[in-house]
Amino acid sequence: MKYKIEKEGKAPAYLQLYKQIREDIVSGAYRYNSKLPSKRLIAAETGISVITIEHTYALLAEEGYIEPRERSGYFVVFRPSDGFAHGGEGVLSHSPAVKRDTKTELPFPLLARTMRRVISDCGERIMERCENKGSIELRETLKRYLAASRGISVDTEQIVIGSGSEYLYGLVTELLGKDKLYAVEFPTYRKIEQLYGAMGINYEKLPMGKNGIESSFLWESKADILHISPYRSFPSGITADASKRHEYVRWAARRGGFIIEDDYESEFSISQKPEDTVFSLSDKDNVIYMNTFTRTVSPSIRAGYMLLPKSLVNEFDERLGFYSCTVPTFFQLVLAELIAGGDFERHINRVRRSKRREIG
Question: Looking at the domain 13-82, which fold is it?
Fold first, then answer.
């Protein structure tokens, strides 16, 4: 072993150790099914506590690199052939552009028919420029859909259309301020870290437990803004339970801060009821909700939307109203037609029924 922990390092000891062990696993120094060094052995070499090492091993297990075996220790379960990809700060890439999941995408014949119908019905309107928040047709359609299917009640002016999550992340940081301290789940979606890093934003990583961010780290955080994916956070796959979601709401209320809720893929939950969003649970008007059509329609249609708290609508209009909408009017009208005509919801329901059958 060669693990070294910088006592005065910027990163906590468990994260320093995590990165070094992960590197050894990914590089093949620890092969599939090989046993990792005991916690006591690493503690003796590095001078850190066994409890710290337990936390490191727990994170590696949650990410799918290792697994504990009763009375035997921890063993490597990572194999490159399983589809994991190593990247930068220790998170896994899940860019839908890399690998399509045709099981969840809208059937191409249906999408093609809708496109032809929009061209026929709308004519040259598809070439018009829409207002900066997006076309009124799509925003009003989303307003009705979210109220009926997700229990989310918003005004049309709270809805902002943009070309995918990365663009919307940028708008949010412009709105909330780059001088704030942001907190993200650890591990988290790689592009969140990449964007915050590129914009020079200070952020801290809060370790995940089995139901979401570990409470001790959440309440000790000095962050002003919490960025979360309550449903199947990537790459851990952890879904925050009801208690944890309410805890996030309490945290933001006591902190006087905001939550950025990235609700990626929750439409495909196999639960008999729609997943509760943190946006709908909070009565403090302090949650910014985001979602995209990447998985539900097609990764080629770079379109997403966010829901602003009412308290931020005027500020958004005043400070960011000059931005042009980045989604072509044609695609917005296609999405509006799919949702208003019921094809979108029928597709969602078909996928959910298929997933239920797969698990028996």
Answer: Arc Repressor Mutant, subunit A (1.10.10)
